[in-house]
Specification:
Elements: H1 19-22, E1 30-35, H2 41-54, E2 60-63, E3 71-77, E4 84-90, E5 93-97, H3 99-102, E6 108-114, E7 119-123, E8 126-129, E9 135-140, E10 145-149, E11 153-161, H4 162-165, H5 169-178, H6 186-202, H7 207-226, H8 231-237, H9 239-250, H10 258-264, H11 269-276, H12 283-299, H13 309-315, H14 321-332, H15 336-340
Antiparallel strand pairs: 1-3, 2-5, 3-4, 4-11, 5-10, 6-9, 6-11, 7-8, 7-10
Helix pairs in contact: 5-7, 6-7, 6-9, 7-8, 10-11
Length: about 350
């Protein structure tokens, strides 16, 4: 009932580092652990429970729509320490981790991004409930919890060994109670998790890069939510990663510039360039590369055939069609129109 797939696509995303060394320690960095599409309805609930267990979730798993269970779940192993990235899309689900199950030794902390609509999460006698936007929750796997999603939705979760976070449990507990969309890192980390899933799908062998960034951003988020004095240190350690994520999320905005990026991170433009000096690619070229990648993908997308080349260029941050064409040819050795018609 559970399907496992080895990595067969070693094509790397431009700029991705650490891929080759990642394959030396694990040859199954990505797995499709569940797809209920081809399963009889009577087998789907058990298949879902088995898949959740394979993802390291020790809890009672109870589908809400027992006669119409739908689920697809991917699990990526990011490092030797057991850090994983999981993406599940499916019908409603009730997860209950009891006191007895919590006694099973678990040193993992989960950071979970839940799509909006009807869900609740309870831990540390604190209830979090769905709103109009995606929400992050912090889960201590060593404590009981109750999570219920009543409708179809998406969950992205990273599980990290607590030793990698190097934070006391009272800090994690305080962060779990206090984390909200008002946290300065909430939106950025949520965007990162969605971006991480895209990277893992396209280039699963980039695991080592994902691991380091995921751990550092999770640590910074927990410190900020807990009001921990290490927040400043954690924020500084993740500044370059946060800038990269911000560029990826806003690359199609024609107004994106060093001034805008610096203001979004509450730093001066001079400080922005100072911290970026360690990168192989200039800030302007990073923005340009991301815009060109978006344009290249949209030009090859059959569902975008109704859009003109100029319209795609504008949608990807190029206000001048001539400039777009010149930059595209310099990067890919062909014009946007020729690329589309290949």
């Amino acid at each position: 009932m559970v399907k496992h797939h080895r990595v067969t696509n070693s094509r790397l995303r431009p700029g991705t580092a650490g891929a080759r060394s990642a394959t030396t320690w694990h040859d199954e960095l990505v797995s499709l652990v569940l797809d209920t599409t081809a399963l009889p309805q009577g087998d789907r609930a058990d298949a879902l429970r088995e898949a959740m267990q394979s993802a390291g979730i020790t809890a009672h798993v109870m589908p809400f729509q027992k006669t119409t269970v739908q689920a697809k779940m991917h699990l990526w192993k990011l490092d030797r320490s057991g850090t994983t990235l999981m993406h599940r899309v499916g019908t409603g689900l009730w997860l209950e981790r009891t006191h007895r199950q919590a006694q099973i030794a678990s040193e993992q902390i989960a950071l979970t991004l839940l799509s909006p609509r009807s869900w609740t999460f309870n831990q540390y006698r604190t209830e979090h409930a769905s709103g109009a936007s995606p929400a992050l929750i912090i889960v201590n796997q060593a404590e009981p919890y109750d999570h219920r999603r009543h409708d179809f939705g998406s969950t992205i979760a990273v599980n990290i060994d607590r030793s990698l976070l190097d934070l006391p449990m009272d800090t994690v507990a305080r962060a779990s109670r206090n984390l909200s969309s008002a946290n300065p890192l909430h939106g950025l980390v949520g965007d990162y998790l969605k971006h991480a899933v895209e990277i893992a799908r396209e280039s699963p062998t980039s695991a080592e890069q994902l691991s380091s960034t995921t751990v550092q951003l999770t640590r910074a988020l927990i410190c900020a939510a807990a009001g921990d004095p290490r927040t400043g240190e954690a924020m500084s350690a993740t500044l370059v990663d946060r800038i990269k994520i911000y560029i990826d999320a806003h690359a199609t905005d024609p107004a994106l510039s060093a001034d805008v990026i610096a203001a979004a991170h509450n730093i001066s433009v001079r400080h922005l360039y100072n911290v970026w000096r360690t990168q192989e690619m200039s800030l302007a070229n990073r923005i340009l590369q991301r815009r060109l990648e978006r344009a290249r993908d949209q030009l090859a997308d059959p569902t975008k055939r109704h859009l003109t080349v100029a319209a795609i260029g504008r949608a990807c941050g190029f206000s001048d069609p001539t400039h777009f064409g010149r930059r595209f040819r310099a990067a890919y050795g062909t014009t946007p129109r020729e690329w589309r018609n290949r």
